[in-house]
Every structure is written in structure tokens, then in C-alpha cells.
């Protein structure tokens, strides 16, 4: 008996019960579409994060106060024995070979206002080097000037949206705004950049580092970013920076993150998330499989006489089993194909709604979804098929 | 062709043994036309199923075309049923979603015959039973007599040596039944061995030989010359039937 004949015979049988077949097929289709859509979302999130890293710039080391190993917590969130200081930044800028830029910064929130217009904004105290390390573009005016680290100045660079909302059509360059209770002159407006790693760069206010430290009454730094000279490996820069800071602090109380490491660990986390989403969606396939089993059990019961006839005319148990198994597999395969198409369509719709999210199902998810649908059909079709094959032909023939 | 020696078949029902056939011994020659009659529950259908290798006896030996059936494996029995034995049932057992040609081709699909050969055999069988013009009709579009002729076409398409018919006219009016019986007679004349289980004395009267069963035993064997007397003696004649 040829496979094509079994498939044709099964197809005719399934077509005989269109609604029932379509409903169980829809169960598989929904399960597969869910796997495709959810893994596409997970993969989209991963790609989005990677894109963000690519925009930020890949060639820097971030110095974070606190040591993961010694504090047991997230770096920078308490437990740091020694703060990062301006002297640390200065020492790194002066004595670290291979460092192109050293950009210390602090962050806080403050009200930024112009007349009656006011916005709560993220205020970051930075140096001129910050622009280089974060690849910031200035749309109008200039960035903050190069100043001594301890020297403040009443100058501010505004994010694009913040400037637009405070000045509504007017040119902000040279105008004065209030940041907290300080008057500051706007020297530049950043080019639109959007949100990166949770920070909306269109809504920040960048002020000189010393000014921000005074404003927030802080002596310590939030981070120091160090960009490597071209051709200098980040790992060696990181090791030398760590050595220098350990010398200065007398102990290893800082964590140095490279963009690669953060990106890789985030990517791994998001990969795991995608896998988990896929696995959760796959559970719905079990339900679909039970649907197929139910349909096939009903088919075996309804077609007992036919099974008896097949046995009477020479069909073997193996052939009868194959017929029902192929029918179940056909239901699952058709459902799988429909689910893949629906998943693909759903992904296109998602991308249409959120163009920034590069949602696309990973190849492994598409492959496993297709394999899974067939596996579901075979697995859940096995019991009904076995029952059909085991029917006593005489008893089966007696049923109507 | 068929040699049954001391065949018994016992079923269990609620822990109690039911003796459907008891020590049946019979020989049916190739080309013979044998009718089996008897009251309900006498073991007629069980005997037909055993002869057709759909069931195995509890004891005794059965030789089909010289081969001891008990020694055959399941695959060999499947093959035997597919090639050498044809079945015709009272309720036709046609597959409603297949057309007439598809129904005739069905056993050949499972036998692995190539499509072209199947088509040739099916069309020849349909022509032989007068259903060539109805090849693409589904069973629901056929009359009762046509359905039974279609079932016969399916049974004989691969030219088996034995045709087993269980109440072949049981669901037919007398005119359609007559057409079907004529067809069976013709096939028998062409050399096909025919074993027919029936309640209908008019069917039995066409046989070469009659076996009457009661309580799982053959209680009477009657050649064609004695058929009428045997039927009357057992209250199975046309008047009482």
C-alpha cells in the first residue's frame, strides 16, 4: 500500500466530516500560531535590545560602584564600600593606556521649566566626552563645552522633545530655562534618538557634571564610561582599569562591564524568555492534540464497520493503524501549516502596529512548531489508530 | 477446497462458555455452491467467518486449498482473504464517501496493486455485474439491488476462488434479489465456489447442497435432489419461510 494512497484515502475520510475536521485542525493551528507569534515577540525584543546596544556604541567599558561577588547584589544599588569619585575619573583619564575617552556621569530627576511650562525630566551631569562615548548628535547649537571636572557652568543641552515642548516653535538656543531652582542657558538641542535601554534621550537635560553633583548634593559618580582607543581590546582595557581602581581603593569594590558582556547576558536572558514563551504556547498544542484524539476516537467508533470490511478484504492491522495515524497526522499537518501562515500573518500585523519592534519568529521556532504539530498528530493519533487496528473484524462488521 | 474437521468455536459471555459451533466436519469442493440454513443463533455466521478466515476455531482443523489455516500467521491470513476469498454482506458494507469504482478498488489499494491495474480490474468487475454506467455514482445514488451487485463486484474483482455471502438478498425486494441470485449463479457457473448463509429457501434452492445447522451442529446435509424435502422437514420451506 502506497503512502500516497493512504493519504488520499485519509483525505476523503476527513473531507466526509468537514466541520469536525476543521475544528480539530483549528485547534492545532491556534497552538502553532501562538508558538510563532510569541517566539516572534521574544525574538523581536531580543533584536530590539541588540539594536539599542548597536546605537549606543559598542566600544566602551562601564565602571559601576560595588562588586557583584562581594556585595551579592546588583552593582550600584547599595552595598558599595567605596564610591566612585571624580579623582577616580581623573586617574583613569590620566593613567589608563588605551583609553580614548573617560566619561564620568551622575543622574537624577529634576523639574525643568520655562515660564509656565514645566516638565519632570531626567537630568544627567556629564562631560564633553559623554557625547563621544554615547554617540550623541546635536541638532542645534553645541554640546556642553570642555570644562575642568570640578567646574560647573549654568549651561544645559536639552533632549529634542523636551526642547520642543518647553519652547513650542521658538528657538531655544541662548534662551534660559530653570533646572530645579537654577537658571541655565540652553546651548544645544540633541537630535531625536528615542528610548535606549529604558532612558528616553529625547527627554533628558544634560548639564555639566560638577553642576549636577552640586544640584543633587552628591560627591560620588553614578558610572564612569571608558571608550577604548581603536584597536585596543575591551578586555585588556577593562583589566587595566580594574587594576588601577583596585590600587586606588585598596580592594576590588567596583564592577567593570563591557557592552559585549551586558549585551550577551541580556541576549541570553531574552533567548530564554523566547524559549519559555514558545514552551508555554506549546502547551496549547497538547489541548489541540487531545482534540485530535477525540475526533479520531469518534471516527474509529463511527467507522467500525468500515474497519471490519477493510480487514475482511485483506487489510492488515498495520495498514488499518497506518490509515488512522495518517488521518491524524494530516489533521495536525494541515493545522500546523495553517498555524504557520496565521503566525506569519500575525507577526506582520505586529510589525505593522509597532514598526520599532523587529518581531520575527526564530528559525528554530518555525522548525520546531512544524515538527511539533506532526508529533502531536502522531502521538495523539496513536491511541485511536491502535484501537482501530485491534478491533475484532467480526465484531466490527456486526456494528452499524 | 475447504476441509473442516471437528471444528468447534466457543465464546465466553459473562464467564459462561457459549458453544457457537460444535465438532463441525465438512468438505466443500472447488466450484460447489453450498447453502447454509438454520435458525438464528445456530452458528451459521460463525461458520462463515471461520471459513473466511476472519475468525479462528477453538479446536479442530481447517484446511483451505490444502493449507492448514491454524499454521498461518496473521499476515498470511490477511493475504489469503485479500486474494482468494470474497465477502458479500446483507448490509452491503459499502464505503459511502467513495464512488462505485472506488469501492471496488478499495481492497486492491490495500493489496498494493498499481493504479492502472486496479482501474482495469474494477471496470471489468463493474461491467460483469452490469454497473459500468454507474461507476462514478456513490452508494447513496444506487438502488438496493445495485448496491449488492456493487458489493459482489468488489468481492470478485480480484478473481478469488471462494465467495462467502451472508444473507445476500436479506435487504432486497424479490425482483432485485432475483437479479443478485442470478448473478451469483453465473459466477458459480464460471467456477467460483459459493457458500451462502440464508434464511430464504428460494436462495437455498439454487445451491448444489444444503447444510442445516442447529445449536452449532450440522443436523442435516441435503444434496440438490433432496433440498425441498429437507427444507420441509425442518420447517424451512418457502411456504413457512
Main sheet properties of chain A: 6 strands, mixed, barrel
Radius of gyration of chain B: 18 Å
The residue-averaged pLDDT of chain B reads 90
Q: What best-fitting shape of chain B do the alpha-carbon axes yield? A: globular
Order of helices and strands of chain A: HHEHHEEHEEHEEEEEHEHEHHHHH
Largest sheet of chain B: 6 strands, mixed
Number of helices in the DSSP assignment of chain A: 13
Structural class of the secondary structure composition of chain B? Answer: alpha/beta
Round the Cα radius of gyration of chain A to an integer and report it. Answer: 32 Å
Q: Tally the beta strands of chain A.
A: 12
The share of residues in helices of chain B is 25-40%
Number of strands of chain B: 10
Relative strand content of chain B: 25-35%
**What oligomeric state is this?**
heterodimer
Distance between the termini of chain B: 31 Å
Supply the number of helical segments of chain B. Answer: 8
- The helicity of chain A comes to 55-70%
Instruction: Give the largest interface pair and sizes.
Output: A-B, 25 and 27 residues
